[in-house]
Amino acid sequence: MSDNSHELIMCIVNTGFSETVMAAAKDAGARGGTILNGRGTANKEAESFFHIAIQPEKEVVMILVDSKIKDAVLHALYQKAGLDTMGQGIAFSLPVDDVVGLTPWKNIDKDGKTIKMPTLPRDEAKS
């Protein structure tokens, strides 16, 4: 069973505004993120509904955060890069079941039992 201690925040903004997103997220406690290039497919009806011109070129910023700061990060993104800004961003979060690579590996499985750490052969460990 997972503990859902992390959330993945995805923020989609106009090209050129990913640094604004990351600055806002870091100010709210995030440690970093990943930026992907993308292209939006919104139609003219969406443009008239939101009363904005939609640029097709986008940047998608993925930010893994502790669940405790998710709301603060989302609020910061709304303030600095939301639909009412030049970035015209939208952001949402998704629950994350498991995470590895953020903190040192613990030698305990989900049932609280000690597990053996994998080891590499000597020549692989040196490369």
What would your notes on this structure say?
With 127 residues, the chain is of the alpha+beta class. It has four helices and four strands, in the order βαβαβαβα. The protein has one domain (6-100): Alpha-Beta Plaits (2-Layer Sandwich). Strands 2-3-1-4 form a four-stranded antiparallel β-sheet, with helices on one face. Helix 1 packs across helix 3 (70-81). The protein is elongated and about 55 Å long. The two termini are 35 Å apart.
Question: Topology of this protein?
Answer:
Layout: E1 6-14, H1 18-27, E2 34-39, H2 44-50, E3 57-66, H3 70-81, E4 90-96, H4 122-126
Antiparallel strand pairs: 1-3, 1-4, 2-3
Helix pairs in contact: 1-3
Question: Gist?
Answer:
This protein has 4 helices and 4 strands, in the order E-H-E-H-E-H-E-H.
Keywords:
single chain, 127 residues, alpha+beta, Alpha-Beta Plaits, 4-stranded antiparallel β-sheet, 4 helices, 4 strands, 25% strand
Q: How many strand units?
A: 4
Which CATH-level-2 architecture? 2-Layer Sandwich
Q: Beta-strand percentage?
A: 25-35%
Instruction: Tell me about the largest β-sheet.
Output: 4 strands, antiparallel
Overall mean confidence score, pLDDT: 83
- Strand order in the largest sheet: 2-3-1-4
Task: Give the total of domains.
Answer: 1
